[in-house]
Structure formats: structure tokens, C-alpha cells
Amino acid sequence: MSSFVGMQIGAVSFTDEGVAEVLDSVQERGAANAILLSAMSWLRGTAGRAHTGFPDHGGQEPDEFEGGGYFRPDPRLYGDSPIREFQAPEKEVQGFDILADVIPEARRRGLKVYPYYCERYRTFPHPVSVPGFAGLIEIDHTGRKASRPCLNNPGYRAFMQAVVEDWCKNHDIDGVLWGIERRGPLGNTLDADQPSCFCRHCEEIGHREGIDVRRAREGYRELANFVAGTKAGVRPRDGYFVGFMRLLFRFPEILAWDSLWTRSHKTFAREIYGLVKWIDPNLEVGMHLWQYINTYDPFLKAQYDLSELSDCADWIKPVVYQTPAGSRFKRYVERHTSSIWGDFEAPELLRFLYRVLNLDEAEYDKLAEAGFSADYIRDETRRTVEACPGVPVYSGVNVGVEAYDDERPIRPGDVRAAIEASYAGGASGVVLSRNYSETWLENLSAAGDTLRELGKA
């Protein structure tokens, strides 16, 4: 019995190789029956070419990636949005519409189609590159602009709702894939990023909820100074973790403000879901779940109870990229041993987090090369399935996330193991990730061969 098999694709792959050629490749090699089109993105990993090495197809030199919309917006729908001009400026995609130019060919091949947008915690357009975007940016604890749009800014909500309405009303699609890869002020501050948001919209909500906004600002100022000191090698008198907890007890507004942001984030996802269903109840909303939320970060994992996704998603795609996971989790550990977990050496903290996060992977000095195991994929998929009964889970498996630094490149045997583990964990399908432009064809073929052997394609 066939299952959902999706492939994520950015516009540059179609302009590099041709629409028919790309669709034939993902169907014949990867056994895909759905395509997830990066219709708007400011993230190279979902919309550009690979840039630390090129696979055996597509462009073989860096593109001029800047990001934006890869479809022609319907100006009638953006009257309430401060953003109207946001089409991607790269020369490689000029004149190409990833929805209008791809969907007819996809339909002729029987492929389902989902435009895809992934919210990112860092990578957004520079405020001067998109007219009107400066007015949507978060404000940090000192009054400076941060780098991300504010979820509580009415202009940002109007812009994103216009984009989704445009996709749903003007294109023959099966639904939308909405990506969650953001975190609140606490996570940003602990990672030495800007504590935000303290704009007037967020402050108004805080006042209504009875939060002392002045104290929240002061608490984040103290926490940011604390993290800056630990990063500079200053050891707190009573230790790192005690120093961190002392700040939380002194300023409970730190957690209250982070909770306000997280609730706004969840509300935003529900609004997107509701908008899609209002336009057409038959359209599906998939939820892309960031690996930091479901795997790496205990603070995010505590804030995002997966069972809550059941009321804002028709299916869920948990990211379970196993080969880069070792290197990425190792870097997470290393960053935090110079922050609130500075009382630990990195190998000690790794073992502690394994226990807290219910992981059992390689030792510290072998982790980057080993990556995470197929057992991790099975167990993470099963946990998501159990948390969301009745909601299909399509595991986001790595067939081509380009490798950085000490990350181990994905190989055909890894692809096979990941797909087998996904179905062993109860998945109803898989999404071949992260982007077709990053994927070596032997890995795509390994995915298709495995799916056919399992009777899933």
C-alpha cells in the first residue's frame, strides 16, 4: 500500500534543470507522490543551491541567493499588508513562478502539491532589502531592532495571511506545509542572541496579562549580561547554573515573558491553520517541526508539547536528520558549556542531556562522525505518533542536507536505514529533505528503492 512520499524542492532546481526533468527525477528515482515547493523562503537550505559542495546534478557554482517570494503575488490580496514587493531578486529565477509554472506539470504526473514556508529563528531578509519590512522587526530589551519579524505585529500577521490566502485561492494545491523553526527570548538570550521582542504590540499584551514589562526588560538585560560574561570566561561566584537560577528567582518575569512569546507563536500557527480551512476545508495543513524543538533543546521541548499540534495540523513532519544530528548536537553542547551549563565539561553535559532528553547516542569524541542512529529516528517518530493520535506523521528524513565542518555526509545506506526506521516507528509517510538541490542522486535512488521494497510506493 502506497504512503505519502514528499520531496522538498526550491525554484532554482527547476530553472537549473527544467521542470519536467526535476519532476521525473523525484518520481522515478525517489518514488515521490508529492512535492513541497519552497514558494517563499529566506533560507538557502530550502530555496537555494548547495554552497559547500555540489551534488551530481543542477548548478555547479554558487547562486546569488537572497530569498523572498518565488511566485507572482496577486496584488488584490495584499491591501492590508505593509509588504507588497517581496519577490526573490536572484537572476537565476527571474521570470519563473514556482507555483504557476510547476503545478500543471505536477498534476499531469499525479503529484500532490504543497507550497512550503519555514519560519526561521535567524535567517530573515535584511530590513532594507524588502520595502516595509523594517516596521515588522522585533525590538530587543534595549530598544534596538533585532533580526526577526514580530509575531504580534499586525503588519507581519497580515503579510503572512495574505501569502497563504494567495496560495490557497489562486493555485491548484493540496494544502500548505508550515514550518516552525523559531524560539522565544529565553532561548535566544541563552544562545547569546538578542532578547526580543519588546515592541509596543508585545508590551500591550504583557500589560493585559499582568506582567511587569519593566521588570521583564530588566531581567533580560541582567540575563544577557550574565551570558556575555560567561562567554567571555567569567565564572559566576556560585557557579553557572546556580547563577542562572538565581536570576530566574529574582526575575520570574523572564519566564513569564518567554511564555508570552511562545503562546503567541502557537496562536499564530493556529491562525494559519484556521485561515487555510476557512478558504477550503479540504486543503491540508502540514506542520514541519524543528529538530531543536523535538530533539536538541530541553527548554524548547518542554514548551512545545507535541500533543498540542493535533488542533493545528492535518499531518506532522518531525525533522529527524540523523547524520548531521551528531555534529549539530555536539555544537549545541559546546555553546552551552560556555553559558548556563558551564559547570560541566562538554562530555559530561552531553551525557546529562542524553539522560534528560531520553537519547542514547555516540560518545562525545565520536559523535560528529557517527551522527545519530536509526534507532533515534524510530523512537522519535514513535513519540510523535503517540503524542498525536489520529494525526498522520511523515518523518522528515535526510537524503541531502549538505554537510558542514565535521558533519558526516549522508550515504545511501543511511537513507535506507532512516526510511526503514521511520516506518518501524509508525510513520504514515516520509518527506525527503532538506532540498532537492542538495541531494545526490544515489541517495534519492536509495530512498525510492527502499520505499518500493517496503511496499510504500
Shape: globular
* Biggest sheet layout: 8 strands, parallel
Q: Please give the radius of gyration in angstroms.
A: 22 Å
CATH first level: which class?
Answer: Alpha Beta
Number of strands: 12
Strand content: 5-15%
Q: What order do the strands of the largest sheet run in, or round the barrel if closed?
A: 10-9-8-5-2-1-12-11
Mean pLDDT: 95
What is the percent of helical residues?
A: 40-55%
CATH homologous superfamily designation = Glycosidases
Count of spatially separate domains: 1
Q: What's the end-to-end separation, in Å?
A: 7 Å
Count the DSSP helices. Answer: 18
Q: Which structural class best describes the helix and strand composition? A: alpha/beta
**Might you state the CATH topology name?**
TIM Barrel
What is the strand and helix layout of this fold?
Layout: E1 4-9, H1 11-17, H2 19-28, E2 34-37, E3 40-41, H3 44-47, E4 68-69, H4 103-108, E5 112-120, E6 137-139, E7 145-149, H5 154-170, E8 175-181, H6 185-190, H7 200-208, H8 213-231, H9 240-250, H10 253-279, E9 284-289, H11 291-296, H12 298-303, E10 315-318, H13 325-336, H14 346-357, H15 364-370, H16 374-387, E11 394-398, H17 412-424, E12 429-433, H18 441-453
Parallel strand pairs: 1-2, 1-12, 2-5, 5-8, 8-9, 9-10, 11-12
Antiparallel strand pairs: 3-4, 6-7
